[in-house]
Amino acid sequence: MKIHLLPSGPIQTIGYLLTEPKLGEAVLVDAPGGIMARIQPLLEQEGCTLKELWLTHGHWDHTQDAAKVVRETGAQVLAHRDDQVLYENPAIMEERLGRKLGLEPVRIDRWVAQGDTVQALGREFTVRHVPGHCPGNILFYQPEAKAAFVGDALFKAGVGRWDLPGGDFDMLAMSIREQIYTLPDDTIVFPGHGPRTSVGAEKSGNPYVAAVAR
Question: Which CATH architecture does the domain made up of 2-205 adopt?
């Protein structure tokens, strides 16, 4: 499995294209603005078809190109139901931002929840619910690849904002400790913004959330 990091959109949100050329399949984690133009050459180069789009949460910078991706590839969309209102009524975010972003509703084909498994690319991924930044924030964990795609829950030496509607720092801290810090220390954390990190590095040095509550 290859992992392509593709910062895209107005604030360089990272979409992750996961490809398995041997099977001719691909999965996209999040769909920031303009990402369709970035993934198309990679899909052609590796002879892969985009099978699924996994949305880590419903914020606009992670969903801006979602409807376009679905139209052009027919990919099935997975997300958590706690962000349903954002997926179905993205105008809510435009009203809060005070500007038009051309957001379109996106239809979710499968609602996933804590502990669900997803079969893709010849592997099994586990879903963990990590609310606090956004009610429906989830991560996708693949043990053999030692990879966790966490959305905006956790960053290198940082955490996702909790001052947005639906955010809650205490919930976010609990989610990180229970759902991310319980992964093996050598798990690579692929966040929605910024450089990748590891579970072990954040447990020992994250200034916002310690491994054990003080």
Answer: 4-Layer Sandwich (3.60)
State the Cα–Cα distance between residues 171 and 166, nearest whole angstrom.
10
Q: Extract the tokens encoding 95.
A: 């009203």
What are residue 195's phi and psi, to 5 degrees? Answer: -75, 160
Around 155, how many Cα atoms within 13 Å sit in the side-chain half-sphere?
14
Give the sign of the dihedral formed by CA 73, CA 7, CA 172, CA 114.
positive
Tell me the pLDDT of the chain (214 aa) as tens digits.
999 999 999 999 999 999 999 999 999 999 999 999 999 999 999 999 999 999 999 999 999 999 999 999 999 999 999 999 999 998 888 777 767 778 899 999 999 999 999 999 999 999 999 999 999 999 999 999 999 999 999 999 999 999 988 899 999 999 999 999 999 999 999 999 999 999 999 999 999 999 887 6
- The greatest distance separating any two alpha carbons of the chain, rounded to the nearest whole angstrom, comes to 50
- pTM for the predicted model, two decimal places: 0.96
Strand partners, 57: none
> In terms of DSSP bridges, do strands 13-20 and 154-155 run parallel, antiparallel, or are they unpaired?
unpaired
